[in-house]
Amino acid sequence: MKPPNVRKFIPAAMQNRLNALTDACRAALPGPDRSMAVGAGMFLLLFLMFFGLHLLCAKGVSMALTHLNEKGPVSVTLRGVESAAFPPGMLASECLIHNGKTGALARIGNVTIRPSLTALFSGGFGLSLHGTMAQGSVDAVLRTQSFTNLKTLRLSATVDGVRLKKLLLVQEHFPVLDGVVSGRGVLDTSGNGALDLHAGLLKTTFEFPALSGYPIMGGKLAATFANGVMQVDELRLQSGADFQINVRGTMRPQWSNQPDAVLNLAGTLRAPAERIVPGPMGAKINPGKDTRFTLQGSVAAPKYVFE
């Protein structure tokens, strides 16, 4: 059985440095003993490096969880933890993300955590995570702002094929939603970041007095975060050309007995005549044309005003 080619796991920049070190060793050693000595030296160097990465991963996970659980709005618990053989890192059967007031938010299964060499070579310490979530997958990197600033953590994540109905957060607090979501986001512990999500097969049974139900829709959300406030740059829900909702504005998340947010949004609604319910609110919607509206209040108690 051939030994694993460890070089394929090493970034190009580090490979170049190892090659330079190898050449220097060969030049300094006498001819007959060069190959053996260099080989032993390289093996020792790689052993120390990967052993150090094992320790770094375990210590990094412990520090990151402690900081998140003390300072963040959520707590993170790892279950079924064991060491990963190669490359270095750790495995967990489950990662549970929880809020003390609202309960469980998300569950990630079959978790693999490894040191992030990308973060290391860009000026910080980091951990990469891969797992399954709600019939989809999630890949994330949790890293420090720099080598010296260990208090500010930044999470960047990519999700693919996540089923909304299978998310703990949706099951508990937004059971009227379903669909498949993919995209990416970045958020740090100061409340700054960005979000870019795409959704398909969106279904909802949300009751809106001016509409008699919703078609199956596609959707897009592009937003930024500044000090915890969410700026919605684009929120679009669409089914063909005759049904479309576009929204922009701000949302200020709140953590109480359930996830909520203070709304300050404005947008347009386009719906066919057969979906408009006769009444005071429905009378303000022009069938097949964009109708402007504002949305304030909160997610739990929204207030709509049509122009």
From TrEMBL:
The keyword Transmembrane applies. It comes from the Bacteria. The chain crosses the membrane at residues 36-57. Keywords: Membrane, Transmembrane, Transmembrane helix. This is Type II secretion system protein GspN.
